[in-house]
């Protein structure tokens, strides 16, 4: 379906709504945060900004516990895919998803923070987030680079995820509780089991939770009934959390989250099916082994530890301190079958590989509330230290490499995925000054980034010859990020906002230290060098919009909300690999005229993305309706292959997306049921044929979901809960544009039954 008549769609979107969020925002948001709505008033996946409007609600979308439970999604990216401006990239295969916000889809452009720990996996052609949805309480998406709390990247936005707490699960005044849950999905015969125990002391000073869930499933099925091969899952996950109220004003939270998965999988988890074996291969190796020769066995572990201390004395408005430390580590070990080819996988991590990504984030911030004459201030100051380290190694046992010292006899770091470390220190200052109904927010952040590569074990990628340009030494980057925001509450129901921000990101380890081979002048790549001369990427971002909310619109107990946002992002000196036209005026015949030690990456000419979002919501005691619409456009100066050539579309811009929903509630019976529709326009603004970053054009499609839930009432049925969700109700065959032509999943019935004690 192509969304051709924009005016008609906007009118349609305004007739419905998005669900309310259930998150009490923190930090700066304390002064004007939205109040939490009852769970019965929410609709999954499409959210707005709450009952109250304020400067802290601009550009934010939320998923609360009820939204997450109703979707029964298999991964966090699928949850977020239903939000306006947020789109899933990749496949439905386990660990095969990344996120795209407003056209930004690189891992460094979409920051993910879980309980204060950074999560981001940049391994080549792999997914980036591995978080079990069953452990998640709520998610906040802050779109665009308009927050000072996190620096060095995040052009697309920041996703903040909070895991469950004991107090969220305990019923009434109970001091001890437990949860048992079973879920089944028909598409892939998935069987999920969950068990949790939680409790608190009588005085409320301590509460703790231990949560365990296990996903097991066969391969997913496409709409035509064919298997989506190697999408089976066996993934246990666990969460343990302890809250200690040291005093009335101090809270210490300690948590750990663990996840693991093991399965045969294609090298590129983001991609489509592995190529089928030939008849000759099946005859030689047998059917099972013939298929396994095309893939690899992947063992993955994901670990997170966090500690938070909050000090907020009620009689000291100048003090609201948060100190936190987060540790995140992801390991992947890939190994191909013993019968696989030994010389065919140089560009896909060889026949065996090891990758470990470790992140540490320490943060200290304070918020002060005070007045100066007629002005009310919310002053925030903070500092962060972030350490990112990656260790990589692969085994490439070709007949040449295992005998060649320049290949280190087959053991070396992938030249396109080098090892290294990046450290960052940032400080920020922000003051939200209110005068009457107007709030002006001014902020500035300073970041200092250092990076250092690990010399490759293979001398052909770590040559001492100057013509190779292999330099793994330290690189430093620093700069300021100013931001300015204006919020005006024009009436009791209508508000207007405008924001402008400038920020930057340092080159990643991959961009700085990727290299190509160099043995001699006649045995070397055209672009052998590491890229130590890169400048930072820069962005100037602006957004304007309006918000409207009203209680008692048609009846005494209904509520309606609307948010409209326009945004534009201008990126300069964007970083990309050196492709096609290597230098100005270059042609393939000029290879001998190229300068020596030409870098593998370069700064390009920049690009622009812009778009529009509408989110609407209407809710009564027994009925709710909603809609959200997002539309994006992007244009690159020159092209990725030829910065001096013709302009081309930004390939990561998502098609138009309209989300709609209708439903009813019977609070006395504990019943909620409804329909959700996702309508995606076609995407024909694609790169020319032959471009390495080209995504094939996609057709529009519509997907329909039905959902229902029942919560037991009364002493006998209390704590019992059942949910049914039917995805892709009409078994529509579709291929999402950002998923590189990967076929979507067929009809899927999801049923869960839980009992809390």
Automatic annotation (TrEMBL):
One of its GO terms (biological process) is siderophore-iron import into cell. The keyword Transmembrane applies. Residues 58-158 form the TonB-dependent receptor plug domain. Keywords: Cell outer membrane, Membrane, Receptor, Signal, TonB box, Transmembrane, Transmembrane beta strand, Transport. GO terms for molecular function: heme transmembrane transporter activity. Residues 280-729 form the TonB-dependent receptor-like beta-barrel domain. It holds the Pfam family TonB_dep_Rec_b-barrel. InterPro entries: Beta-barrel_TonB (IPR000531), Beta-barrel_TonB_sf (IPR036942), Plug_dom (IPR012910), Plug_dom_sf (IPR037066), TonB-dep_rcpt-like (IPR039426), TonB_haem/Hb_rcpt (IPR011276), TonB_Hb/transfer/lactofer_rcpt (IPR010949). Its main location: membrane. Residues 1-22 form the signal peptide. It is found in: Cell outer membrane. GO terms for cellular component: cell outer membrane. It is a multi-pass membrane protein. Coiled coil: none annotated. Belongs to the TonB-dependent receptor family. NCBIfam families: TonB-hemin, TonB-hemlactrns. This is Heme/hemopexin utilization protein C. It comes from Iodobacter fluviatilis. The gene is hxuC_2.
């Amino acid at each position: 379906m192509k969304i051709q008549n924009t005016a008609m769609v906007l009118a349609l979107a305004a007739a419905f709504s998005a669900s309310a969020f259930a998150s009490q925002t923190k930090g700066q948001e304390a002064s004007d945060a939205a109040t939490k709505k009852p769970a019965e008033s929410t609709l999954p996946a499409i959210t707005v900004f709450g009952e109250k409007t304020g400067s802290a609600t601009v550009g934010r979308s939320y998923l609360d516990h009820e939204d997450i439970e109703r979707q029964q999604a298999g991964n966090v990216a699928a949850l977020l895919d239903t939000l306006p401006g947020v789109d899933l990239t990749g496949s439905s295969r386990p660990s095969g998803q990344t996120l795209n916000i407003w056209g930004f889809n690189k891992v460094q452009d979409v920051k993910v923070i879980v309980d204060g720990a950074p999560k981001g996996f940049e391994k080549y052609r792999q997914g980036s987030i591995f978080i079990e949805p069953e452990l998640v309480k709520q998610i906040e998406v802050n779109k665009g680079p308009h927050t000072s709390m996190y620096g060095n990247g995040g052009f697309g936005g920041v996703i903040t995820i909070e895991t469950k707490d004991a107090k969220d699960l305990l019923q009434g005044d109970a001091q001890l509780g437990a949860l048992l849950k079973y879920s089944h999905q028909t598409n892939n015969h998935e069987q999920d089991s969950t068990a949790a125990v939680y409790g608190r002391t009588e005085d409320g000073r301590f509460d703790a939770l231990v949560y365990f869930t296990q996903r097991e499933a066969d391969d997913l099925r496409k709409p035509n009934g064919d298997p989506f091969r190697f999408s089976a899952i066996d993934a246990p996950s666990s969460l343990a959390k302890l809250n200690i109220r040291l005093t009335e004003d101090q809270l210490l939270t300690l948590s750990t989250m663990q996840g693991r998965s093991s399965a045969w999988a294609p090298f590129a988890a983001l991609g489509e099916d592995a190529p089928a074996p030939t008849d000759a291969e099946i005859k030689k190796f047998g059917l099972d082994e013939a298929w396994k020769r095309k893939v690899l066995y992947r063992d993955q572990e994901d670990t997170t530890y966090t500690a938070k201390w909050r000090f907020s004395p009620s009689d000291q408005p100048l003090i609201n301190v948060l100190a936190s430390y987060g540790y995140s580590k992801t390991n992947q070990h890939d190994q191909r079958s013993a019968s696989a080819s030994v010389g065919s996988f140089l560009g896909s991590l060889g026949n065996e590989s090891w990758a470990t990504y470790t992140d540490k984030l320490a943060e200290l911030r304070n918020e002060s509330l005070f007045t100066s004459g007629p002005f009310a201030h919310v002053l925030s100051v903070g500092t962060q230290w972030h350490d990112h380290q990656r260790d990589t190694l692969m085994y490439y046992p070709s007949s040449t490499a295992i005998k060649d010292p320049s290949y280190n006899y087959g053991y070396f770091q992938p030249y396109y995925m080098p090892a290294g470390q990046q450290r960052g220190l940032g400080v920020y200052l922000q003051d939200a000054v209110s005068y009457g109904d107007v709030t002006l927010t001014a902020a500035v952040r300073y970041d200092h980034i250092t990076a250092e590569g690990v010399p490759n074990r293979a001398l052909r990628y770590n040559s001492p010859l100057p013509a190779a340009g292999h330099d793994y030494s330290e690189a430093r980057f620093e700069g300021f990020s100013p931001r300015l925001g204006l919020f005006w509450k024009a009436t009791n129901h209508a508000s207007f906002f405008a924001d402008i921000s400038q920020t930057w990101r340092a080159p990643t380890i991959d961009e700085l230290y990727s290299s190509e081979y160099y043995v001699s002048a006649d045995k070397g790549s055209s672009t052998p060098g590491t890229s130590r001369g890169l400048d930072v990427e820069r962005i100037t971002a602006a957004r304007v919009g309006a918000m409207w909310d009203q209680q008692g619109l048609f009846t005494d107990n209904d509520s309606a909300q609307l948010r409209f946002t326009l945004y534009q992002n201008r990126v300069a000196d964007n970083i990309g690999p050196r492709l096609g036209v290597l230098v100005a005026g270059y042609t393939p015949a000029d290879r001998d005229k190229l300068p020596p030690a030409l870098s593998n990456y370069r700064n390009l000419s920049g690009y622009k993305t812009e778009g529009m979002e509408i989110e609407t919501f209407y809710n009564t005691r027994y009925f709710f309706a909603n809609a959200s619409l997002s539309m994006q456009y992007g244009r690159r100066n020159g092209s990725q292959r030829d910065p001096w050539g013709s302009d081309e579309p930004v390939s990561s811009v998502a098609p138009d997306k309209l989300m709609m929903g209708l439903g009813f509630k019977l609070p006395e019976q504990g019943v909620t049921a409804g329909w959700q529709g996702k309508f995606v326009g076609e995407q024909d603004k694609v790169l020319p044929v032959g471009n390495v970053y080209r995504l094939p054009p996609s057709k529009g499609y519509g997907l329909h979901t039905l959902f229902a839930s029942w919560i037991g009432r009364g002493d006998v049925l209390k704590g019992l809960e059942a949910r049914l969700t039917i995805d892709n109700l009409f078994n529509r065959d579709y291929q999402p544009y950002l998923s590189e032509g990967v076929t979507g999943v067929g009809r899927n019935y999801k049923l869960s039954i839980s009992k809390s004690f």
